[in-house]
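Subject: Methyltransferase domain-containing protein

B.,
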Amino acid sequence: MNYLEEFYSDFDEDGRLLSRHGQVEYLTTMKYIHDFLGGAKQVHILEVGAGTGRYSIALACEGHNVTAVELVESNLNKLRAKLDGSEKLTAIQGNALDLSMFTDNSFDMTLVFGPMYHLFTREDMLKALSEAVRVTKKGGHILVAYCMNEAAVIQHAFLHGNLQKVLENDMLTSEWHCKSEPKELFQLVRTEEIASLDTELPVERIKLIAADGAANYISECIDSMDDFTFEKYMEYHFATCERQDLTGASNHTLDILRKI
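Prediction pasted inline below.
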């Protein structure tokens, strides 16, 4: 996992989510977390792949009991440095593939917002999902984030002018699916692949949403918006982010599952 440590030691994840266009993903994800918490207080929440704590700390500050598991030590150190001791948050180093430190049915809600970006076999993806489902209480929700294939092709290959490099390095299949490998850092999927994973688990899908929709395609436009325009853009985004004809082209999707 050295490649992850190297990447995240230099990558400004907080800055990404705090940028105006990055706020689309953050605000959308928090909206759906709150929707499925249903106003409940002091809920036990597990975040697997907590990064630098953007979600875990926010939820702990709302009064929830949060356990944050993060693989990358530099991220974990950044998370812990933000805490003042008043939060109901436990931060530990751990791997999404092995949550054996937790018993079955321990958490009301489990968030898996980072691991599926960096798991490159179906076996590992199912293992991480199975562990997240196992530790979630029956009837509880599991929210899983994915990086999507079409956004990567459109933006990296065409918009950013890397098509020739992509073709020369044999990074695409004949069906325009990115060949995701650890050296490329990110696993890129399509909606049908997410659905296929779900069929292997004791869950029912509640929603699959476009967490950021078109935000990264028009990031410069969004970053230049005044407050009124951005508020209206978010209204538009919330009105369309559940439309399945748009979901597959989002940079990130959020799969919302209920444990049976």
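The chain is about 45% helix and 20% strand.

T.
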